[in-house]
Amino acid sequence: MTIPGVFAFGDSIVDQGNNNAISTLVKCNFLPYGKDFEGGVATGRFGNGKTPPDFIAKELGIKELIPAYLDPKLKPQDLSTGVSFASGGSGYDPQTSQLASVTPISTQLNQFKEYITKLKAVVGEEKAKYILSNSIYLVVAGSDDVANTYFTIGTRRVQYDVSSYADFLVSSASSFIQDIYKLGARRIAVFGVPPVGCLPAQRTLAGGSIRFCAELYNQAAQIVNAKLSTALDSLTGALPQSSVVYIDIYNPLLDLIMYPQKYGFEVSEKGCCGTGDIEAVILCNKYSGTCADASKYVFWDSYHPTERAYKVLLDQIIQKYINKFV
User: Which protein family is it in (predicted)?
Assistant: First the structure.
């Protein structure tokens, strides 16, 4: 069975440049972002080069790069191999996207509906149905909910303890998956929350003077992941002809952070941009300076992995999970 396209929903890990088109500070269409991208172009991807949708599309033999749905240069022929609707700073909690002035997943869903209409106009009803039901859908969210909305800003902590906030996020994720299923999606890969307490920014904000990993943040991520994994198992049973697969990103990324040398990296506790402690989006800019060689760093900025770290992670993930989709 061939996989005709890759679609992505969620946050900055899979935002291919959608935030360029909206009015928000959460964007990175300026150098040094994209420094190692073909031609050194800052496309709006949150890193120094390619991101997970690109690696997955290439590995599946679909195409080199997955475009952003809101890219003004998007051509009709790009529609049939998939696009990303993701928006950096978004999450399962509607408050998360509000705080960052970015596109919530509810709007990403509406854009997907709009996309389907355009796709049918280009390839016809039958072909569109084939593309929609056989493509892979990446749903990547939750880290901004946990790290920013719950811990750093803290408004949700008044209403929820960690366990009930996790239930709230998982309920939102389940609804979203059922919504894209109703629109034709069948092969759905849902990424868990990474070890957010070990992101350089969270070490700086919550790891004390020694910048340890923030344990509470990591525990919260694990609680969300356990509940998400259980919910997805029951969804696969409830949605005929679907593969809804939980993708564990927590453990592979934690291993990369704890044992960087094992994978040929040198630095994992700070990012390559600026001091590496706190810089991300507008704080990582042409005046920040960068490390000499991003491929030695697990993190590009204080929040996002480097292209090479993504490649190492995606190689493991594709090997482990691809047979669940083909």
Answer: Belongs to the 'GDSL' lipolytic enzyme family.
Q: Is residue 255 among the annotated active site residues?
A: no
Residue 1's pLDDT is 61
- The packing angle between helices 250-258 and 215-238, to 10°, is 150
Angle between the 162-182 and 215-238 helix axes, to the nearest 10 degrees? 40
* pLDDT the model gives residue 158: 92
Q: What is the 3-state secondary structure of 55-113? A: HHHHHCCCCCCCCECCCCCCCHHHHHHCCECCCCCCCCCHHHHHHHCCCCHHHHHHHHH
Quote the pLDDT of residue 97: 97
Question: Of residues 12, 90, 172, 302, which has the active-site annotation?
Answer: 12
pLDDT tens per residue, range 201-230: 888 888 888 888 999 999 999 999 999 999
Q: Which 3 state secondary structure label does DSSP give 188?
A: strand
Q: Based on the residue annotation, tell me whether 304 is a catalytic residue of this protein.
A: yes
pLDDT of residue 35: 95
For the residues of 115-178, what is the DSSP string, one character each? HHHHHHHHH-HHHHHHHHHHSEEEEE-SHHIIIIIIIII-GGGGT--HHHHHHHHHHHHHHHHH
Radius of gyration of the chain measured on its C-alpha atoms: 18
Euclidean distance between the first and the last CA atom of the chain, given in angstroms as a whole number: 6
Catalytic pick from 87, 90, 242, 304? 304
| Lookup: tokens for 181 | 């299923």
List the catalytic residue out of 15, 93, 145, 301.
301
Burial degree of 229 (CB within 10 A; 0-12, 13-18, 19+)? middle
Exposure b/e, 27-59, CB count within 10 A at least 16 = b: bbeeebbbbbbeeeebbbbbbbbbbbbbbbbbb
Residue 11 a catalytic site member:
no
